[in-house]
Amino acid sequence: MIVLGVESTAHTASVGIVDESARVLGQAGDMYRPAAGGIHPREAANHHVETLPGIVRAALEAAHLRPSEVDAVAFAQGPGLGPCLRAGATVARTLALLWERPLVPVNHCVAHVEIARVLSGLEDPMLLYASGGNTQVIVYGAGRYRVLGETLDVGIGNFLDKLWIALGGTFPGGPALEAEARLGSELLALPYSVHGMDVAFSGMLTAALAFHRDGARRADIAYSVEATAYSMLTEITERALAHRQREEVVLGGGVACNQRLQGMVRTMAEGRGGHSFAPPRSLCVDNGSMIAWTGLLGHRAGLAVPVERSAVLPRQRTDQVPVPWRENGAATA
Ligand code: AMP
Ligand code: MG
Asked: Is residue 332 part of a domain?
């Protein structure tokens, strides 16, 4: 079985094509970059409308496939920005109708789990999902993926982007902040905001900006923000592991590409006698292949929907979606 997946929840328009062994046959994409400030949903959606037809063609070419060789079309149904989701869903519906193929809705967060799970070979890992809009610790339990902990205000990536722009940089802030942090050495005292298995970042943003106004070095701010924010994420992940008696962690989301965060989570997991795994960057950030792979799992479990029941769900929660492919223990490819 070969499935094509369309991702368009936020900045990234991406199409991936995978086979039954989760091999990525082709993937193409393009990211909307705002001229100034953060994401503008309508502008991002326009970007996706304009670029997705070419991206579909590029993914098919990369995979050396004809449309007739694609068995199903999957799309990210939610959560995400409404206009962006609709752009991708419209393309997926069009392809499904045109090619006369089943249409499979996919939850974006579940897709991050499933691609990391199959690539890692870990049976039942916990996911630390750290991206622009989302910050969650997710684990499977009783028929659903459950959110054990999450941000109480903004996603960590949005926080890093906002901070970097206020420090004079441009979007995306995370990678630039990572480079800047390597030049820092002084640990500034920032609010460490962990509440059980939840975290919050807005207090840290205010405090970091105050240090900036008072003349602190940008490198030290970057260094301290990374140290504090990633410690918070590592702590809630460890607490979740301890409570659920798990040993394995996978990472997903753009911020999870960060080497310092990956190192901290690895040290924590290995210190507990467990393992951690981060997918390669192209499959860790938002990508069409994870939608295609989760769509393949969903299609095999009978989750295809008619076009008229394929509305996008911008606020869809991870634990609202059934994951029937896990209920019988059929965990991997
Ligand atoms: P996503 O929402 O998963 O597409 O990820 C986008 C977010 O990841 C943006 O907020 C980026 O600033 C952030 N990001 C990307 N690479 C890194 C990195 N190396 N370190 C920290 N944040 C990153
Ligand atoms: Mg994501």
From this structure: no
Q: Could you tell me if the CB of 199 is within 6 A of ligand 1?
A: no
Residue nearest to atom 11 of ligand 1 (CA): 174
- Which ligand sits nearest to residue 14's alpha carbon? 1
* Predicted structure pTM score: 0.94
Give yes or no for residue 60 CB within 6 A of ligand 1.
no
185 Cα to the center of ligand 2, angstroms? 31
How many domains does the chain contain in total?
2
CA gap 310, 308 in Å, rounded: 6
Give me the amino acid identity at 150: E
pLDDT at 39 over 90: no
Average pLDDT value for residue range 141-155? 96
**From ligand 1's centre to the CA of 133, what distance in Å?**
10
User: What is the predicted pLDDT for the residue at 333?
Assistant: 43
Q: Distance of CA 308 to CAs 37, 85, 93, 312, Å?
A: 36, 16, 9, 11
Q: What is the CATH number of the domain that holds 13?
A: 3.30.420.40
**Domain range holding 84?**
2-112+283-320
